[in-house]
Design goal:
Blueprint (H helix, E strand, L loop, with lengths): L6 H6 L4 H7 L8 H6 L4 H22 L2 H4 L2 H12 L3 H11 L2 H10 L6 H54 L5 H60 L1
Helix pairs in contact: 2-10, 4-9, 4-10, 6-7, 6-10, 7-8, 8-9, 8-10, 9-10
Length: 235
Amino acid sequence: MTRPPLPFLAALAWMPAENSLQTQAPVYGRSLFELWLSSGFVGPLLALGGCIAVVLALRRWLELRPDRLAPKALQQSLEATLHRGDVEAGLEAATGSRTVLGELVVAGLLLRRAGLDDMLSNVERASTREALRLGNRVANLARLGGVVLLVDLFGTTAGLMSTLQVIEILKEPTVSDFVRGILEALVCAALGLVVALFCFVAFFWLDARLTQRCLEVRDIAEELVREAAEKAHLD
Protein backbone atom coordinates (compact mmCIF):
# COMPACT_ATOMS: atom_id res chain seq x y z
CA MET A 1 0.00 0.00 0.00
CA THR A 2 1.32 3.48 -0.87
CA ARG A 3 2.19 5.67 2.09
CA PRO A 4 0.38 9.01 2.26
CA PRO A 5 2.43 12.24 2.38
CA LEU A 6 3.70 13.35 5.76
CA PRO A 7 1.51 15.94 7.52
CA PHE A 8 4.24 18.56 7.78
CA LEU A 9 5.04 18.18 4.11
CA ALA A 10 1.38 18.62 3.29
CA ALA A 11 1.50 21.89 5.24
CA LEU A 12 4.57 23.00 3.31
CA ALA A 13 2.83 22.10 0.08
CA TRP A 14 0.88 25.34 0.07
CA MET A 15 2.69 25.68 -3.21
CA PRO A 16 0.26 24.33 -5.77
CA ALA A 17 2.46 21.40 -6.85
CA GLU A 18 -0.09 18.75 -5.83
CA ASN A 19 -3.02 20.38 -7.57
CA SER A 20 -1.07 21.00 -10.75
CA LEU A 21 0.12 17.40 -10.88
CA GLN A 22 -3.32 15.92 -10.34
CA THR A 23 -5.26 18.21 -12.69
CA GLN A 24 -2.63 17.87 -15.44
CA ALA A 25 -2.84 21.61 -16.20
CA PRO A 26 -0.76 22.64 -19.23
CA VAL A 27 2.53 24.23 -18.29
CA TYR A 28 3.61 25.62 -21.63
CA GLY A 29 3.12 29.30 -22.15
CA ARG A 30 2.72 30.19 -18.48
CA SER A 31 3.63 33.77 -17.68
CA LEU A 32 6.27 34.83 -15.19
CA PHE A 33 3.52 35.97 -12.85
CA GLU A 34 1.91 32.54 -12.94
CA LEU A 35 5.27 30.91 -12.23
CA TRP A 36 5.77 33.32 -9.35
CA LEU A 37 2.36 32.36 -7.93
CA SER A 38 3.36 28.70 -8.14
CA SER A 39 6.18 29.37 -5.65
CA GLY A 40 3.67 29.65 -2.81
CA PHE A 41 4.48 31.73 0.26
CA VAL A 42 8.23 31.72 -0.51
CA GLY A 43 7.79 33.83 -3.64
CA PRO A 44 6.29 36.84 -1.81
CA LEU A 45 9.00 36.56 0.85
CA LEU A 46 11.71 36.72 -1.80
CA ALA A 47 9.95 39.61 -3.53
CA LEU A 48 9.81 41.44 -0.20
CA GLY A 49 13.53 40.79 0.27
CA GLY A 50 14.17 42.28 -3.17
CA CYS A 51 12.22 45.44 -2.31
CA ILE A 52 14.15 45.80 0.95
CA ALA A 53 17.43 45.33 -0.91
CA VAL A 54 16.56 48.10 -3.38
CA VAL A 55 15.65 50.49 -0.55
CA LEU A 56 18.84 49.68 1.38
CA ALA A 57 21.03 50.12 -1.69
CA LEU A 58 19.41 53.46 -2.50
CA ARG A 59 19.79 54.76 1.05
CA ARG A 60 23.44 53.70 1.27
CA TRP A 61 24.14 55.34 -2.10
CA LEU A 62 22.60 58.59 -0.90
CA GLU A 63 24.65 58.44 2.31
CA LEU A 64 27.89 58.12 0.33
CA ARG A 65 27.35 61.15 -1.87
CA PRO A 66 30.11 63.77 -1.57
CA ASP A 67 27.56 66.40 -0.54
CA ARG A 68 26.53 64.24 2.42
CA LEU A 69 30.02 63.28 3.57
CA ALA A 70 31.80 66.59 2.97
CA PRO A 71 29.46 69.43 1.93
CA LYS A 72 31.09 72.20 -0.08
CA ALA A 73 29.54 74.84 2.14
CA LEU A 74 31.14 73.25 5.20
CA GLN A 75 34.54 73.04 3.53
CA GLN A 76 34.45 76.71 2.58
CA SER A 77 33.27 77.74 6.03
CA LEU A 78 36.02 75.77 7.76
CA GLU A 79 38.68 77.06 5.40
CA ALA A 80 37.69 80.66 6.08
CA THR A 81 37.36 80.14 9.83
CA LEU A 82 40.63 78.26 10.30
CA HIS A 83 42.50 80.66 8.03
CA ARG A 84 41.53 83.42 10.43
CA GLY A 85 42.82 81.30 13.30
CA ASP A 86 39.41 81.04 14.95
CA VAL A 87 39.68 77.40 16.05
CA GLU A 88 36.74 77.56 18.44
CA ALA A 89 34.41 78.71 15.67
CA GLY A 90 35.78 75.95 13.46
CA LEU A 91 35.12 73.36 16.14
CA GLU A 92 31.58 74.62 16.59
CA ALA A 93 30.88 74.55 12.84
CA ALA A 94 32.37 71.07 12.41
CA THR A 95 30.50 69.65 15.39
CA GLY A 96 27.18 71.11 14.32
CA SER A 97 27.48 69.77 10.76
CA ARG A 98 27.05 66.11 11.82
CA THR A 99 29.01 64.93 8.79
CA VAL A 100 32.02 62.68 8.32
CA LEU A 101 34.19 65.67 7.44
CA GLY A 102 33.03 67.43 10.58
CA GLU A 103 33.90 64.42 12.73
CA LEU A 104 37.41 64.20 11.27
CA VAL A 105 38.09 67.91 11.64
CA VAL A 106 36.87 67.87 15.24
CA ALA A 107 39.14 64.89 15.98
CA GLY A 108 42.13 66.79 14.66
CA LEU A 109 41.40 70.14 16.26
CA LEU A 110 40.86 68.64 19.69
CA LEU A 111 44.59 67.77 19.83
CA ARG A 112 45.82 71.10 18.46
CA ARG A 113 47.94 71.70 21.55
CA ALA A 114 49.75 68.37 21.08
CA GLY A 115 51.16 69.20 17.66
CA LEU A 116 50.51 68.41 14.02
CA ASP A 117 51.55 64.75 14.19
CA ASP A 118 49.09 63.95 16.94
CA MET A 119 46.39 65.91 15.16
CA LEU A 120 46.86 63.91 11.95
CA SER A 121 46.99 60.65 13.89
CA ASN A 122 43.67 61.45 15.51
CA VAL A 123 42.20 62.29 12.10
CA GLU A 124 43.37 58.87 10.88
CA ARG A 125 41.74 57.13 13.83
CA ALA A 126 38.50 59.03 13.32
CA SER A 127 38.57 58.18 9.61
CA THR A 128 38.93 54.48 10.41
CA ARG A 129 36.07 54.67 12.90
CA GLU A 130 33.76 56.39 10.43
CA ALA A 131 34.70 53.94 7.67
CA LEU A 132 33.84 51.02 9.94
CA ARG A 133 30.53 52.62 10.93
CA LEU A 134 29.48 53.25 7.34
CA GLY A 135 30.89 49.90 6.22
CA ASN A 136 28.73 48.10 8.73
CA ARG A 137 25.66 49.76 7.24
CA VAL A 138 26.70 48.79 3.72
CA ALA A 139 27.32 45.21 4.90
CA ASN A 140 23.61 44.88 5.66
CA LEU A 141 23.14 44.26 1.95
CA ALA A 142 25.43 41.23 2.07
CA ARG A 143 23.66 39.96 5.19
CA LEU A 144 20.31 40.32 3.45
CA GLY A 145 21.70 38.42 0.48
CA GLY A 146 22.66 35.54 2.76
CA VAL A 147 19.17 35.45 4.30
CA VAL A 148 17.61 35.45 0.83
CA LEU A 149 19.73 32.47 -0.18
CA LEU A 150 18.59 30.53 2.88
CA VAL A 151 14.93 31.30 2.17
CA ASP A 152 15.55 30.35 -1.44
CA LEU A 153 17.04 27.01 -0.40
CA PHE A 154 14.14 26.33 1.95
CA GLY A 155 11.53 27.09 -0.72
CA THR A 156 13.24 24.96 -3.35
CA THR A 157 13.74 22.03 -1.00
CA ALA A 158 10.18 22.19 0.31
CA GLY A 159 8.82 22.34 -3.23
CA LEU A 160 10.84 19.31 -4.34
CA MET A 161 9.82 17.34 -1.26
CA SER A 162 6.17 18.17 -1.85
CA THR A 163 6.46 17.15 -5.50
CA LEU A 164 8.08 13.83 -4.68
CA GLN A 165 5.44 13.06 -2.09
CA VAL A 166 2.69 13.73 -4.65
CA ILE A 167 4.49 11.64 -7.28
CA GLU A 168 4.65 8.81 -4.74
CA ILE A 169 0.87 8.55 -4.43
CA LEU A 170 0.19 8.68 -8.18
CA LYS A 171 -0.53 5.29 -9.71
CA GLU A 172 1.10 6.00 -13.06
CA PRO A 173 3.30 9.11 -12.85
CA THR A 174 4.54 10.49 -16.14
CA VAL A 175 7.55 12.56 -17.13
CA SER A 176 5.27 15.58 -17.29
CA ASP A 177 4.39 15.11 -13.63
CA PHE A 178 8.06 15.25 -12.65
CA VAL A 179 8.85 18.20 -14.91
CA ARG A 180 5.90 20.27 -13.74
CA GLY A 181 6.71 19.85 -10.05
CA ILE A 182 10.42 20.46 -10.50
CA LEU A 183 9.72 23.58 -12.57
CA GLU A 184 7.57 25.07 -9.85
CA ALA A 185 10.19 24.25 -7.21
CA LEU A 186 12.98 25.84 -9.25
CA VAL A 187 11.05 29.10 -9.50
CA CYS A 188 12.11 29.80 -5.90
CA ALA A 189 15.73 29.08 -6.78
CA ALA A 190 15.69 31.46 -9.75
CA LEU A 191 13.97 34.29 -7.89
CA GLY A 192 16.21 33.92 -4.86
CA LEU A 193 19.37 33.93 -6.96
CA VAL A 194 18.30 37.12 -8.73
CA VAL A 195 17.66 38.94 -5.44
CA ALA A 196 20.86 37.62 -3.83
CA LEU A 197 22.90 38.60 -6.89
CA PHE A 198 21.57 42.16 -6.67
CA CYS A 199 22.41 42.29 -2.95
CA PHE A 200 26.01 41.15 -3.42
CA VAL A 201 26.68 43.31 -6.49
CA ALA A 202 25.30 46.37 -4.68
CA PHE A 203 27.37 45.54 -1.60
CA PHE A 204 30.68 45.23 -3.45
CA TRP A 205 30.03 48.37 -5.50
CA LEU A 206 29.05 50.46 -2.48
CA ASP A 207 31.95 49.08 -0.43
CA ALA A 208 34.43 50.21 -3.09
CA ARG A 209 32.68 53.57 -3.28
CA LEU A 210 32.89 53.89 0.52
CA THR A 211 36.65 53.33 0.52
CA GLN A 212 37.17 55.96 -2.17
CA ARG A 213 34.94 58.52 -0.48
CA CYS A 214 36.53 58.05 2.94
CA LEU A 215 40.00 58.60 1.50
CA GLU A 216 38.85 61.79 -0.21
CA VAL A 217 37.23 63.15 2.95
CA ARG A 218 40.30 62.26 5.02
CA ASP A 219 42.53 64.20 2.63
CA ILE A 220 40.28 67.25 2.93
CA ALA A 221 40.26 66.99 6.72
CA GLU A 222 44.04 66.68 6.87
CA GLU A 223 44.45 69.81 4.76
CA LEU A 224 42.16 71.74 7.09
CA VAL A 225 44.00 70.45 10.15
CA ARG A 226 47.35 71.44 8.65
CA GLU A 227 45.93 74.89 7.96
CA ALA A 228 44.88 75.22 11.58
CA ALA A 229 48.25 73.98 12.87
CA GLU A 230 50.22 76.34 10.65
CA LYS A 231 48.09 79.30 11.66
CA ALA A 232 48.47 78.45 15.34
CA HIS A 233 52.26 78.12 14.89
CA LEU A 234 52.50 81.49 13.17
CA ASP A 235 50.45 83.10 15.91
